[in-house]
Write a structure and sequence with these properties.
With 93 residues, the protein is an alpha+beta fold. It has a single domain (4-74), classed as Aminopeptidase (3-Layer(aba) Sandwich). The chain is built from 2 helices and 5 strands, in the order E-E-E-E-H-E-H. Strands 1-2-3-4-5 form a 5-stranded mixed β-sheet. The radius of gyration is 12 Å and the shape is globular. The termini are far apart. It comes from Edaphosphingomonas haloaromaticamans. This is N-acetyltransferase domain-containing protein. Residues 5-92 form the N-acetyltransferase domain. It holds the Pfam family Acetyltransf_CG.
C-alpha cells in the first residue's frame, strides 16, 4: 500500500487505495502556520480495514516532519490522538 502524501493544492493528505480511490484528511493552515485537520474521509468499502489509522499515522508523522503543529477539529483525528499520546509534541489544540 502507498504512503501518505501531502497534496497542498487540494488541502489534504492522501493515501492512495485501489484504482482511483483515495482516503483523505482535509486541512487548512491557520494564521499561526498550524495544520488544522478538519475532516477525514475513507471510502465506505474500505471501512474496518485499518485504512483510517494508517492515514492518521501518516498525517501525524508528516506534520511532525514538517516542524508544524496540528490542531484537531476532526472527530476521527481527535479519537486517533486519544489513543496515540506519543503525538502530544505536535498537537496544539
Amino acid at each position: 500500500m502507498a504512503s501518505v502524501i501531502d497534496n497542498p493544492a487540494q488541502h489534504r493528505f492522501e493515501l492512495a487505495l485501489d484504482g482511483d480511490n483515495v482516503a483523505a484528511a482535509y486541512y487548512r493552515i491557520d494564521e499561526e502556520g498550524r495544520v488544522v485537520l478538519t475532516h477525514t474521509e475513507v471510502p465506505f468499502e474500505y471501512s474496518g480495514q485499518g485504512i483510517g489509522t494508517k492515514l492518521a499515522t501518516g498525517v501525524f508523522d508528516a506534520i511532525r516532519a514538517s516542524g508544524r503543529k496540528a490542531v484537531l477539529k476532526c472527530s476521527f483525528m481527535s479519537r486517533f490522538y486519544a489513543g496515540h499520546p506519543e503525538y502530544s509534541d505536535i498537537v496544539d489544540g
